[in-house]
Amino acid sequence: MELYDFIVKNAEGNDVCLSDYKGKVILIVNTATGCGFTPQYDGLQDLYEKYKSRGFEILDFPCNQFGNQAPGTEEEILDFCQSRYGITFPQFAKIDVNGKNESPLYTWLKKQKAGIFGNAIKWNFTKFLIDKNGNVTARFAPTVTPEKLENEIIKQL
Fold first, then answer.
1. Which residues contact 147 (CB under 8 A, 6 or more apart)?
2. 17 is catalytic
3. How confident is the model at residue 36 (pLDDT cuts 50, 70, 90)?
4. Which of the residues 17, 35, 63, 81 is marked catalytic?
């Protein structure tokens, strides 16, 4: 199995084949709208605007597993992100990133790059950077701000 084999649901509930992102540098992030890290949406959007034309994509997967910090429907989350942070990158349906109901995508991502404390996602805004060939090149803790990822993104572009 590779990244491009996965099919996920977007925020509107439609299937999206990750093969649509072949040849792009991708940052996959599990997010939450009520988290201390939520202001990172500003930095993520800045990166997206700066590098989208060069083949950079951000895939946003809301997750309510950590402190119930992503309450609401996909529509409410989408509205919040667009109105509060001006988000224009793709947002997907809420998922679990750990446990028996975790997204197969996240099972795969965690197998590709373990974190400092093992495979489990520790909190919202964990980030995975993927190169143009679909390889996970790095995993970043929630405390690593989007601005600190810029050099790594540029290397992949």
1. 43, 46, 47
2. no
3. confident
4. 35
